[in-house]
Amino acid sequence: MTRALTVADLRALKGKRQFLTMHVDSPAEAAAAAEAGIEMFTCEVDEQLPRIRKAAPTVFIQAAHVQGAIHDESSAIREGFRALDLGASCIYFAGSLRLLEAMAKEGIPVSGHVGLVPRWATWTNFRSIGKTPEEAASIYRRVKDYEQAGAWAVEMEVVPVAIAEWITRSTPLITLGMGCGAVCDSQYLFSCDVLGTGTSRVPRHGKQYADLAAEEARLQELRVKAFRAFANDVRDRKYPETRHEVHVGEEVLAAAKTLV
Questions:
Q1: Rounded to whole angstroms, how far apart are CA atoms 247 and 245?
Q2: Annotation says 157 is catalytic
Q3: Contact (CB, 8 A) for 69 and 45
Q4: Quick one: which of 189, 140, 190 has its CA closest to 160?
Q5: Which member of 29, 79, 157, 165 is catalytic?
């Protein structure tokens, strides 16, 4: 596709096939993921967002604001449109339905979040959410609330597979599954887990496909080795050599001195 994916494009995939979502942290990751066929990114609303958009012009980008940036209806609308101007396709928002609805009413595509929501994990701890009938029903009701508020999609994180499948089949919203098996509309992971660049252990639902942290450590060793060799050469007067210099004849120097 030569144009950016839209909400309509992704809605058309529901019930037909899973599409791929990846959280990316840099333009380099964005370009690599786009080339690999990832259809949706998540990222932050910051200075990287326009660069990520430039690196992956056709990918659907769901962008999240720093917590607290959206705190009332006016800031929700203002920050929502600002993110779209920076290159986002959609706003991720895990806050109040009132503020999500304010954006949706202005035509800003917004997605929500149910299950394990890291921003609110103080209320639940970091664990699977929905293993009891009460929790499962609460997730279902929250998704229905998102529907009524005007969301178009919802992330479901570490929700039991049967519950995630039930909700996915019971809502017109696109469900982005992380740690929910293969039953949601999109399969979602973080690049740090896939690439092995995270500073903490890979979560149970993650899978590491590369070890870039080890590769970066190897590259850092090469950087130190090269810089140390340069420093030693300078101290030992091995650099610069004649081939690194530009020379003129003595007559040029003598003539220059007569001109000052």
A1: 7
A2: yes
A3: yes
A4: 140
A5: 157
Residues, the chain: 260
**Cα–Cα distance measured from residue 94 to residue 154, given in angstroms and rounded to the nearest whole number:** 9
Q: Give me the pLDDT at residue 85, please.
A: 98
* Among candidate residues 81, 135, 129, 130, the one with its CA nearest the CA of residue 104: 81
- Inform me whether the pLDDT recorded for 1 exceeds 90: no
- Got the DSSP string for the chain? --S---HHHHHTTTTT--EEEEE--SHHHHHHHHHTT--EEEEESSTHHHHHHHH-TTSEEEEEPPTTS--SHHHHHHHHHHHHHHT-SEEE--S-HHHHHHHHHTT--EEEEEES-GGGGGGT-SS-S--SHHHHHHHHHHHHHHHHHT-SEEEEES--HHHHHHHHHH-SSEEEEESBTB-SSEEEEEHHHHHT--SSPPPTT------HHHHHHHHHHHHHHHHHHHHHHHHTT-SS-GGG-----HHHHHHHHHT-
**pLDDT tens digits for range 169-217:** 999 999 999 999 999 999 999 999 999 998 778 888 999 999 999 999 9
**One-letter amino acid of 2:** T
Q: Residue 116's CB: how many other CB atoms inside 10 A?
A: 23
Q: Give the pTM.
A: 0.89
